[in-house]
Amino acid sequence: MLSANDISVSFGATPLFSGATFVINPKERVALTGKNGAGKSTLLKILSGLQSPTSGSVSTPSGTSVGYLPQVMQTSDERSVIDETLLAFEDVRRLQAEVDSLTREMASRTDYETTSYAALLERFTAQTDRLALIGTDNFRAEAERTLRGLGFEAEELSRPTRELSGGWRMRIELAKLLLQKPDVLLLDEPTNHLDIESIRWLERYLAKSRAAVMVVSHDRAFLNNVTNRTIEISCGKLTDYRVPYDQYVKLRAERREQQLRAYQNQQKEIADMKDFIERFRYKPTKAVQVQSRIKQLAKIVPIEVDEVDNSALNLRWPPCQRAGDFPIICEDVSKHYGQHTVFTNATLTIRRGEKVAFVGKNGEGKTTLVKCIMGEIPFDGTLRIGHNVSIGYYAQNQAQLLDGEKTVFDTIDHVATGEVRLRIRDILGAFMFGGEASEKKVKVLSGGERSRLAMIKLLLEPVNLLILDEPTNHLDLRTKDVLKEAIRAFDGTVILVSHDRDFLDGLVERVYEFGGGQVREHIGGIYDFLRKKDIETLDQLHELGTAATGTISSTNQKAQNSKGATSHLKEEHSNTRAASSSSEAPNETDKATARQNYEQQKAAARELRRLQRAVEQAEAEVSRIETEIAQLEAQLAAGSSDPALYKRHGELSSELEAAMQAWEEAAANLESLS
To answer: Which of 79, 151, 264, 372 has the lowest CB atom count within 10 Å?
Structure first.
């Protein structure tokens, strides 16, 4: 479907990679991995035709379409969300207009025996067949379904795109790309601006797509759920591992161990030869053997070992004075923008040393509450910062705020003070900016390199409260692991705003969920939270969540009116927890409550299984129809002109649309439990 033939890329005299040769087959899911700056984004641009390689070529069969989503893109500000998204169908509309024009021309002509009329008829038949294969129904409905899957609410579809953040605009571009249904999808960090639920939707979409996919992502869970093949760029070479990402990690470790043993053996052999040459160079009786060793030495091809960054990338925040017991206390905090309510009555207490996560769809108020804590925006309610709290804040756009004209060294030198200025080069070296890399201008750095540089700036001052807003965007997998370990070792308090499930796993012990104007507290790690979401309906989450997980806010008037009842439930839940932790036996009321909760959980589990079966049956029907369509299209592509095939193709297309609608309804019912 798409093949790279001996591609090499060099910038000046510096080679980036060379000899890249591989084929992406239909329906393959390929993860493209490598450290930041290895050339992943460059390779995607070459495959999409936006950039030419230094040597080599890319070839695709005639009629194969390639869609590319870059990390950064300029978008229009002149249309609404839905109108901008519908531009994905411009090619289809042009094709429809051409078919209509050809139809009118054929109706107005009577020279049926001429060569020009035969050419016109052939063109009309070909374009009509193309239009039938693509389908022209329900463009708007399909666009709305895709936008909703990527996190847009129904009322937001008419919003002007100029009012949206860069992350939401990127979602529109992703929606347009998916709606175009190219044969090959090239995705460069598609999850950077998606929340957890949107990422899960995208995973399901790609699993059902008939397109081949090559994706660059630093989201390990996303790669494991989507891809079945891994191509790594390392040491300027491409290595193809035909396994999912987790298996690739194991195979790469085994491969490097083998390379290292072979390298060590070769180095010993070289050392022995050099030693022999030096010892017997001037002995006439050994002249033949010496010359033989010299020739052997010249013929040895050095064994390369896959690069592993051994830079001392150890993130350690300097010690800071001890903060009070409660660094953050929020009581009935609300934020409104005009008539729009972001959240109301958010009440939470974060204790010293806790590591918590803020999760939820984009636009639900995670970053807004962070800005309230930082004092950047006004709010209603009470928000107290504890005694001796020193905050280190990493914003989403921190890397973009760097001065592109400064060098890496000057960027840090400008903010360093005291003894730190004497250790700037050591610090830069620890973050893989050693040697000449420290003299690079910021504007030529990759997204991951800029993020690392912004993180260095955060490290220069001692803090005891870290607030990190999407810190893993653009960080490579190794740097993310190191950052995770540094946060784990940090003895202060941490608030993490992140959609990266793998990064949050094992790091946080409490999750605050933002959604529907509410902020809800969930005890446990990120996967405890996701499992809980899979067995509770939204109604249960809103109505029973107070007793089950500690609801701490509400937006509607009904919740306001029931504030006393909610407080009673909180008190009852608190008393229940205290009783369960004591040595006394539970009373009959506790037992009855436990039985009631157990029956509710059983009923929820039964409903979950029923909906899962419905989704599986719908998926099987979609798969069956897609298989039959693929077989039919193969016959048409082979040159068959049987009218019955086109008729059957139209019938199957209608069946597929109905099956997809049934699947979406079943999936929506299942998702209502999450």
So the answer is: 264
